[in-house]
Amino acid sequence: MQNKLTIIAGISLIMLSGFTIVKTMPIKNAGYPAFSTEAHRGGRGLMPENTIPAMKNAIDLGVTTLEMDTHITADGQVVLSHDEYINPLFSITPDGKEIGKEEAKNLILYKMKYDELKKYDVGSKFYSKFPKQKKLKTYMPLLSELIDSVQAYIKVNHKKQVFYNIETKCSPAGDGVYNPGPDEFVEKLMAVLVQKKILPYVVIQSFDKRTLQIIHKKYPEVRTSFLIENKKSFEDNMSDLGFTPFILSPAYKLVDADLVKKCHDAKVKVLPWTVNTKEEIELLKALGVDGVITDYPDLY
Ligand code: G3P
Ligand code: CA
């Protein structure tokens, strides 16, 4: 039903008390894939994570959905990154040097301006966790640039429109240190999504229930996905969140037939992560999940 409902979006922004309020106008949610095949961080088993080349590669492999993580920079921009700092495991300095572990702790995205962040190479260094990952010089993109690149790639190559599963990487402990407060995070993210007119194809996911609660309250028809890695019951997780999300997205080991039934009875989709073998993907499909998130989008 949700795809038939109108969702809020808009094109005008108002500055008020230091915050950007995203003004909205009605648009329609697109029909969600019957089975969402998702490239985790663009498919980091194959390409440098959370980068434009990774997302294009995932589109070439035919995924329905691009999974990605977002942070806010010191100058208030929405950038793609899983980690709150520049990760020394797969990044090198602008002049090609290794980054020490201690040094990395000071390279906090929320404390750095985007122009500075963009100079780091996040794709050339061998990443032992993903030995098959293609090596190429690339950078952390802004969400706005990523959307522009993906949409242009789809158009030029006559690909099917993909969905965007976008995570807000924030937490109460990180407020003011690694991330702004949840209201500011949501408004900055929504401003980009509204400006790019992409909301019908967006799901916003988070472990931080605060961002989802804000979206539900202020933009109730934007699809949300609650990430969980806990052993609480379905009912307790729903009660913690305080509303029924479009998707419940558990660590895949937590998924069983009972959880799938409870979700479906409540009209909630089940989207496990991060499933990295063909056998496990098939087992989860047999349990009736509504999609799978994998580092290896060539497994679908
Ligand atoms: O989308 C689910 C998954 O991405 C959550 O884990 O830590 O890889 O962002 P993480
Ligand atoms: Ca993620």
TrEMBL record:
For this protein, the record's SUPFAM superfamilies field holds:
PLC-like phosphodiesterases
Specify the protein name: Glycerophosphodiester phosphodiesterase
GO MF terms listed in the record are: phosphoric diester hydrolase activity
What does the record list as GO biological process? lipid metabolic process
Species name for this entry? Answer: Mucilaginibacter celer
Alphabetical list of PANTHER family matching this protein: GLYCEROPHOSPHODIESTER PHOSPHODIESTERASE (PTHR46211:SF14), GLYCEROPHOSPHORYL DIESTER PHOSPHODIESTERASE (PTHR46211)
**InterPro entries for this protein:** GP_PDE_dom, PLC-like_Pdiesterase_TIM-brl
Q: Which residues form the GP-PDE domain?
A: 35-300
